[in-house]
Amino acid sequence: MAGLESGPGPDRGRRHLAAVALHLALLTCVLRCAESDKPSNIILILTDDQDVELGGMTPMKKTKALIGDAGATFSNAFTATPLCCPSRSSVLTGQYPHNHAVRNNSLSGNCSSPLWQKGPESEAFPVYLSKQKYQTFFAGKYLNQYGTKEAGDVSHVPPGWDQWHALVGNSQYYNYTLSVNGKEEKHGDSYEKDYLTDLILNRSLNFLDGRKAQHPFFLMLSPPAPHSPWTAAPQYQKEFSDVKAPRDGSFDKPGKDKHWLLRQPSNPMPNTSLNFLDDAYRKRWQTLLSVDDMVETLVKKLDNMKELDNTYIFYTSDNGYHTGQFSLPIDKRQLYEFDIRVPLMVRGPGIKPKQTLQAPVLNIDLGPTLLDISGVNLSSVNMDGQSFLSQMAPSLRNGTARPYFLVEYTGEGRPSPDPACPKLGPGLSQCFPDCVCEDAYNNTYACVRTLVEHNLQYCEFADSESFVEVYNLTSDPHQLENIVKKVDPTLLQAMNQRLIKLQSCVGDSCRDTKK
Ligand SMILES: *[C@@H]1O[C@H](CO)[C@@H](O)[C@H](O)[C@H]1NC(C)=O
Ligand SMILES: *[C@@H]1O[C@H](CO)[C@@H](O)[C@H](O)[C@H]1NC(C)=O
Ligand SMILES: *[C@@H]1O[C@H](CO)[C@@H](O)[C@H](O)[C@H]1NC(C)=O
Ligand SMILES: *[C@@H]1O[C@H](CO)[C@@H](O)[C@H](O)[C@H]1NC(C)=O
Ligand SMILES: *[C@@H]1O[C@H](CO)[C@@H](O)[C@H](O)[C@H]1NC(C)=O
Question: Most C-beta atoms within 10 A of its C-beta, which of 150, 239, 323, 499?
Answer without folding.
Answer: 323
